[in-house]
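Key idea: predict the complex, not the pieces.
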Amino acid sequence: MVRGMKNPVATAALCALLATSLPAAFALTEAAKPAPAPGEIVNAAPEADWVAIAPDDLLVMTLAPDPRGGAGRTGERRIVIQLMPAPFSQGWVSNIRKLAAAHWWDGLSINRVQDNYVVQWGDAGGGDKLKARPLPAGLVAVPERDYTVSADAYRRGAKVSRKNWANRSYPPIGHDDPYAGRTTYWRGFPFASASASDGPAWPIHCYGMVGVGRNLSPDTGSGAELYTVIGHAPRHLDRNIALVGRVIEGIEHLSSLPRGTGPLGFYEHPQERTPIISVRLASELPKAEQPRFTYLSTESDSFARYADARANRRDPFFVTPAGGADICNIPVPVRRVPG
Amino acid sequence: MVRGMKNPVATAALCALLATSLPAAFALTEAAKPAPAPGEIVNAAPEADWVAIAPDDLLVMTLAPDPRGGAGRTGERRIVIQLMPAPFSQGWVSNIRKLAAAHWWDGLSINRVQDNYVVQWGDAGGGDKLKARPLPAGLVAVPERDYTVSADAYRRGAKVSRKNWANRSYPPIGHDDPYAGRTTYWRGFPFASASASDGPAWPIHCYGMVGVGRNLSPDTGSGAELYTVIGHAPRHLDRNIALVGRVIEGIEHLSSLPRGTGPLGFYEHPQERTPIISVRLASELPKAEQPRFTYLSTESDSFARYADARANRRDPFFVTPAGGADICNIPVPVRRVPG
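Result:
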C-alpha cells in the first residue's frame, strides 16, 4: 500500500466498472493509452528510486486497541513516524530520540483531537507540577532561531552547491505559494524558503507532519508533547513551531479518533483519552519486529513526473488539469517493505 | 461555537494557564494589549455583519447513533450543509432539493471514507442496476460547462459591476494561488477565477465542501451521490466535479468515521456502513425544529480583518506572521443561532 495515492471521487457504479470490466472496456492500443495517473507513475518507479529509511529515523507508537471495536477494527493500532533529516530541527529530534530511549511516553495518552487541525499526545498531567511526569536527563533547550535553517547551513548539511540549490527547485513548472518565496523537497520532506536562490529554509505543516507543542515564546518545547496535522495544512504555524517528522503509516488511527469537546479540542473526561502503550525507535526493536519503509526519492525523475502528474491530472477521470498544485497536495509516496 | 476558529498548538500546561491565570498574568494596559486573534475579531463582529442562511439553503442529514458509543458520544449525529448560492452549480443544487423532498436518501448509507480525502454517501447498490434505488422524476442532466460560471453570468447573478468585480479581490493583500489567477469569496463561499479582472469563476474544494460523485466524462453526476472533503484541499478536483455546498455543522461525525479498507476507501463489509436516517431541507422541518445559522458576511470589514489576521498572526503565541494564506486556510466563520 503506497501512501500519497489520491483517487477521483468515483461513484459506486464507476468503482464497480473499474474493478470488474476495465481491462475489457479499455482494450486500447499503445497509441491510445490514457495518460498515467500519479499512482501509476509511482508504481512504475524503478527500485533504484526508492530510498530506505534508517531504523534510527523511525518512531513506532503503539496505542491500546480501539474500545469502540467494529468490523476489521480490533487489534493493535500502530503509528510509524519518520523523523526529520538533518540539518532541520535536530535539537528537538535528538530530544525525541532520548525520550523514546527512556520509554518516557509509555502509559501516557492522546489528550487532544481538534477537527481539521491536530491530534496531540503527551503528559495529560503536564499542566500540573505535582502530577507531571519528570523528563529524562539530558534534553536540550532549543532556541527559536532553529525553526529555520540558513541557506549556508542548509547547503553544508545537504551537501548542495549554491548552483544546485537554485536549480533544485520544486515545482518543476511555475507554481505560486502564498506562504513562501519557494517550496521544494529534500530527502522526502517538504520545505519552504524565503526565495528561490537564497535565504532561510524551513519545514512545512502538511497533513501528517509531526510537530512539538510548546508554551508561549521564547519556549520552543522539548519534544515531549507532540502533535500531528489531521486537516488542511495549517501553514501559519510554519516557522512558529518545530516540525520533527511525519506520520508514514497508521495516521488513520489518529485522524479517526473522536474529537475532544473541551477548549482547543482537549478531552473533557480522562476516560476519553487513548492510552499509549509504547513509543520506540525502530532501532530499539528486535530486528524481526523492525518495520521497514522506503520513500520515493524526491530527487528522482520518477518523483518529478509524479509531481507533474499531480499538478496536471490527465488520466481519464479528469476534464480540466489544474496547471499547478500546492506542495501539501503532492505528498511524498512511502512504501512498506514486506518483512 | 463558531466554526473557523483555529488555535495554536499549545501544550497542556499552556492550556491550563490560559484557562486559569491569564486574566491575572496579562493584566495589560490598553496600549500594551496584544493583537487580537482571528477568533477574537470574529467574536467582536457586529450583528449587522452576520447573514442569515435561508432554511431552503440548509440540508439536514441525520445519521444513526454511533454504535461505538464512548463518553459524550451517544445520541443523534446531525450534519448541516449550506447549499451553494446562485449562479454556481444550480442544476445540481436543484436536483438535490428534489432528492431531499422525495426523502430519497432515507435508509441509504455512508459507503466510503478515505483518509485525508473524502467521505461519500448515497446508494451502496448504485453500481448494480437490479439493486439500485430508482431516482425521483424531474432530475436534470447538467452539462460539464456548468462546473464554471462565465464572468458575465457571475456578474449578472451576483449583481456586480465589472469595476466592482475587479475590486472585490480576495485576499486583501497580495497572495499567490497555485491553482488559479485569483481567489475570492462570495456570499460565504470560496471561489477561484482565471484572472483578477475577468474569465470564468468556480467553487473551490476546501475542507468540508460538498461535491457530486460522478462516472467518467461526460457524466457529471445527478447529485444523488455526494461527498465531503475531510483532508487537505484536493483542489485538482476544482472544475472537474460539481461543488454544491459545504458542511457548516457536524463535520466531526463524518471526519472521525472509521476509514474504509477497500479500494478508494469504500467499506468492504456492509455492516461497516453508517445508516442515514434522513436528509431534509430545513424548510421542510417543523418551524420549531429548523436549525438556524448565520455566516460572517464575506463582504464585511470584519471578514477582511479576520482574513488579514489569519494571514498575519500577531496574537501572543506567534513569533513570525506568515505574510499570506491560502484561501482554504481562511474558513468562513459560521454561527448557530440559539433556538
